User: Fold 3-methyl-2-oxobutanoate hydroxymethyltransferase from Alloprevotella rava F0323.
Amino acid sequence: QKKVTTRKIQAMKAEGKQIAMLTSYDFTTARIVDQAGVDMILVGDSASNVMAGNETTIPITLDEMIYHARSVVRGVKRALVVCDMPFGSYQITTEDALRNAVRIMKETGVDALKLEGGAEISDSIGKMVTAGIPVCGHLGLTPQSIHKFGGYGVRAKEEAEATKLILDAKVLAEAGCFAIVVEKIPADLTQKVAEAVSVPIIGIGAGSADGQVLVVDDMLGKNEGFRPKFLRVYANIAQVMTDAIGQYVTDVKSGDFPNEQERY
Ligand code: KIV
Ligand code: NA
Assistant:
């Protein structure tokens, strides 16, 4: 199986082929996600929420992201692996951003990085691309700025923010981003962004785009109680796990497990 490259992802847009992306944070899940045929795997800082149980993505550290990314890389043969740069690892100076970007590339083996923001981080992105690091942008609802936004509502509903978002997409494409994620923006704005730039636009809660991304725990029904309108839930893993674990408890307590075959 040939490894998916950033060039292949870019060619998919040119060929009108949709890009399927999901998150992963650990080895066994990443191996399944990869074998199921996803084109890109995101080691998202949503690990802060779904792995660690935090309210936001703010607290996850660079070391923690590196641990998740290393685990995912070991499970993937085909998909392009993208790692989120966590809050604080690229906002201080361009030099600091580049140092942290290099560290993730050296220590994890991921194929690309993702950063939240537009024009304000384009210098840092330019430096990374110059250094040979593929970068994916992220615009719209950027969860690392949640305290600025004051909530997880739809972004860029107003003209000014929508205009700025299209401009930011152009700046990111110009800075060398190979793709851009747009999160929770109106579907008609996503269409405009996808038409404004030649790089693939990957949507989440953003309607049709050049591809889609979801958090794997959310779409598998493992993140109980999280049911936003944009999410399609493909399984009830929480129920599967609850039933299996309940049966295990029953079997241990009754003495049924382990049986004569399940011992040495
Ligand atoms: O961290 C994440 O899971 C993400 C996607 C939702 C785009 O950034
Ligand atoms: Na993220």
